[in-house]
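Homework help board

Subject: predicted structure for assignment chain

Our instructor gave us this sequence and asked us to write out the predicted structure in token form, then describe one feature. I got the tokens but I'm not sure how to describe them. Can anyone check?
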Amino acid sequence: MTVVITGATGHIGACLVRALVEKGRPARCLVHANTKPLEGVAAEFVRSDICDVDSLCQAFRGAEVVYHLAARISLSMADLPEVEAINVGGTRNVVEACLRTGVRRLVHFSSIHSLVQEPLETPVDENRPLVCSKNCPPYDLTKAAAEKEIRRGIERGLNAIIVNPTGVIGPYDFQPSFLGEAIISMAQNRLPALVTGGFDWVDVRDVADGAMRAEELAPAGESYLLSGHWVSMCDIAAMVSEITGVRNSKMTCPLWLARLGAPVIQGVSRLSGKRPLYTSVSLRALRSNRNISHEKASRELGYKPRPFRETLVDTLHWFEANGKLTDLPASAGKESA
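My token output:
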């Protein structure tokens, strides 16, 4: 039976679609204008609008399973209306379309950012409450609100489960993502300074595998944290240097100082038309909880994230093979995966 994927051309979506097709499952990908991340993939492509429930009903007709990944990722405090329309309104529409068309199971992709991080000295697990403070970034608030839409759907009889990945890294990062862009800059020695702090990073392929395992094995209404390994930005830069042979900036900026300079960086980036790597929101994330437990997913789904260094090697190789690392020195000593 057909599997529908919203957000199919995003980082996780591009990996998930490939994994489903490799298993011989008919994949129907909801797309807008950009299909490049799925070029050559034997899948069905359907134009649809996440904000239009009727178009979703047409796209979901005859589908057994829906993977809902479509979301607006934001590292800004200023774009709540657009983020809310897609992340909350879009999820509400997906729930309604699933109920109307009789979809057997919905797998909803939330985020670690939907969960309260404090107390920082206690591991985060599936029992953490959803964020609700108006001081939280729009992305965090809207992903939490989207989970509530899923829960309302479950109360109406929808068979749905939720997965919460941490910071995603890995191949098929076509855009690239914020971390992917930072890794490219590190590999080209174009990052002027590093910041202290880090995050829990997880391989995109492990997220896709964990979600498929959840679709198959999880009881209705359950949620699972799909985490990986906490690694600092400085340690990532050191690994990139070892893998590529390219020296990185040794200038390190403490988080408190970076936070003071974030408005200036954002202003300069806005004038130049470039996306800032460091914002007040991204710097806030780099000082969040270091211990994100995937014990439940490991116990119930057999989930096992691969070593971070393996992911980083594969990511650098993928960026180079896809023309995003075009000016590495020919003598760069790259490891094999």
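Reply (TA_rk): Your tokens look well-formed. For the description, you could write something like this. The radius of gyration is 20 Å. That's the kind of observation they're looking for.
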